[in-house]
Amino acid sequence: MRAEGDNSTSNGTSRPFSNGSGPSPLHKAAVSNSANGTRRSSIAMNGSSSTNGHSNSGIKPRPPYFGHDREEVTRILIQALTDLGYDNAASTLSQESGYNLESPAVAKFRNAVLQGDWTQAENLLFGDSLEEGGVSIGGNGLVLQQGVDRNVVRFWLREQKFLELLEQRDTGKALMVLRLELTPLYQDTNKLHFLSSLLMCQSTEDLKVKAEWDGAEGDSRHRLLSELSSCISPSVMLPEHRLAILMQQVKRHQISKCLYHNTASSPSLYQDHSCDRSNFPTHPILELDKHTGEVWHVKFSNDGTRLATCGKDGTCVIYDVGSWEVLQCLGLPEKGICSVAWSPDDSMIVTCQMDYYAILWDVHTGKPIVKLPRFEQPVGACVWAPDGRSFVTGVLDKERNLCQWNTRGELIFDWGKSHRIQDLAVSPNGRFLVAMTNEKMIYVYNFITRDLEYELDLDAQMCSVSISQNGRYLLVNKADGEACMLDLESRETIKNFRSDDPGGNYVIRASYGGANESFVIVGSESGNINIWHKESGQLVEKLQHGKSSCNAVSWSPTDPSMFASAGDDGKVRIWADMDPQKRHSNGSRNSNGR
C-alpha cells in the first residue's frame, strides 16, 4: 500500500508493595530458604572472624579458584546451598573452609527487620549507639553502597513501621511516626501526603488495598529486607541468590551470542549453548492465494490459531492455522483494506478501510457488529485497549484522526489533535499509546490519562510502529530502509537495524518475533525479508518473499518457528523451519519450539 504523502505506581510509593499477587518464584525460594531473606541459617556465625567478619583467623591462605577470589566463591556457595535447603552441607562447607556467610551484626540486622524491631534495625544499619548485654554492637554500622542516600533508607524502615502501626489500629503512634520520624527526612511531599491519607482508612483491608501492601504477616518485611540488602556493601551482606543470578547472566550471555536461538526453553548449564540454523524459519512451506490484488497486511490472532490477511481487493480473509482453510471472508470488493486489528480475546476484528470506514466484525459469524461513522480520509490503523472493551482508530485526516470507541460504536474520546495518523501501537500493559503521523512525527500518549507525554521528530518518513510485549521498546520502521528500536521510558535509541534494501513510498510493516521476541523482522520494497537479532543487531537472515514489495510480516505469537509474509504479488507465504510433511508428522509446535 502506498504511504499517504509519499513501570510508577499509582500511589506514588518510593518502593513497590505487594498487590496481593504473591512473590516471584525467586522470592518464594527466599521465603523458605534464603540466607539473605527470611530465616536464620544453621551456619555458624559466631566464630572468630577477620575485620569484615567473614573469614576465621588462623586459616592458611589458599590460592584463588581458577582466578576467582576463594572467599567470594565459597560464600556464594554457602548461600546457594542454604537457598537450596541443604543447611547441613552449607554448615559443613563453612566449617571446613573457615569462611562464614556473614558477620554476627548482619545476622542481627536481618532478624531485627524480620521481627519488626525497627529501632535495633536502624541502629545496626547506621551505627547508632545500642547496648545489648552491656556490649555495644552498633559500632560504625553496616557499610552502605557508595551513593546510597541514608535518609532514603531510613525512610523505608520508618515507612514500614508506620504502616504496621496503622495495621494494628494504633493511629496515635502512627501519627507520631509520620510527624517526628518520616517528615523530618524531607522525602517526596506527595508521598508524605499519601501516607497521611492512610490515617483515614476505616479497616485493615482498606489500608492494604490503598497502600498496595500485604501487612506484617505477609511478604512486606521480606521485600523490605531484600531492598535494604541491595543498599549494603556486598562484601558485608551478600546480594540475594547470587549464584542463581550469575547463572542467569551466563545463560543470557550465551543466548545473546546465539544468532538462531528461537526457543523459550532455558539452555543447559552442562555445556556451551548454540542453536542450529535448521530449526529457524527459513523455508516457505505454503502459499495462500485467495486475494486478487496486492496484500497489504497480515496478522496472526493472539492465540496463534488464525491468520487474517487483507489488501487492495477490499477483503479480509481469515484462515485456520494448520489446515489453512478459509474460515471467513470479510468485506466488500470495492476499495482496499489497509490493516486489521484482532481484539484481545480474538472474538472480534476491526478492518481499517480505504473507503473512509472502519468496521467491527464478529469473527465467528463473519457479520459486521458496527460500522463507524464515515471519516473524511482513509483509516490507516486501529489498536485495541488491553481490556478488549474499546479500540482506537488512526485516520489520515486533521479531524477525528485519533479517537477511542467502544464496541457499540460509540465515541468515548477524541484527542482533538490535527495530526494525520498513519499507524498506531499500544503497549500490552495499557501504559502507552503511540501515534505515528504520515510525516516525521511520533506522539506518545499516556493511554490511561490520555495526556501527551512527549513527541519525537525522527527526521525521516516512517512506515510503521509496534511495541514489544514487555511494553518497553518501540520499533519504528522508516522509509529509508532503517528500523530503529527506542526505549519508551528514556526515549533513547537502543538499536538501529540497517539494511541495504532501498527505501520507498510504501507502507512496510515491521514487528518483533520469535521466542521471547528475540528478533526484528521487516519486509522491503524490493521483496526481501530481513531478520535481525534484537540483542546484537546482527542480520540473521535475508529471505525473498517475491520480486515485488513485501508489505507486511507477522510472526506467530505461539509458534516461534513460523511467520507469514504478504506482498504486492497477491501472495501470502507461510515460513517455517521444515517442510509441511515433517512438521505434520512431528505435531504442531508449542511456544517453546518443541
Any low-confidence stretches, pLDDT <50, length ≥5? 4-34, 36-53, 129-139, 584-594
The helix content, as a percent range, equals 10-25%
Strand content: 25-35%
Task: State Rg.
Answer: 29 Å
Distance between the termini: 36 Å
Please state the structural category: alpha+beta
Largest sheet: 4 strands, antiparallel
Strand order of the largest sheet: 3-30-29-28
Q: Got a strand count?
A: 30
| Number of discrete helical segments | 12
Which key phrases capture this entry?
594 residues; alpha+beta; Methylamine Dehydrogenase, Chain H; 4-stranded antiparallel beta sheet; 23% helix; disordered C terminus
List the helices and strands and how they pair.
Layout: H1 25-33, H2 70-83, H3 87-97, H4 104-115, H5 118-126, E1 131-132, E2 135-136, H6 150-167, H7 171-182, H8 189-197, H9 204-211, H10 220-229, H11 242-257, E3 283-288, E4 295-300, E5 306-311, E6 316-320, E7 326-330, E8 337-342, E9 348-353, E10 358-362, E11 368-371, E12 379-384, E13 390-395, E14 402-406, E15 411-414, E16 421-426, E17 432-437, E18 441-446, E19 452-457, E20 462-467, E21 473-478, E22 482-487, E23 493-498, E24 511-513, E25 519-523, E26 528-533, E27 539-544, E28 550-555, E29 562-567, E30 572-576, H12 580-586
Antiparallel strand pairs: 1-2, 3-30, 4-5, 5-6, 6-7, 8-9, 9-10, 10-11, 12-13, 13-14, 14-15, 16-17, 17-18, 18-19, 20-21, 21-22, 22-23, 24-25, 25-26, 26-27, 28-29, 29-30
Helix pairs in contact: 2-3, 4-5, 4-10, 5-6, 6-7, 6-10
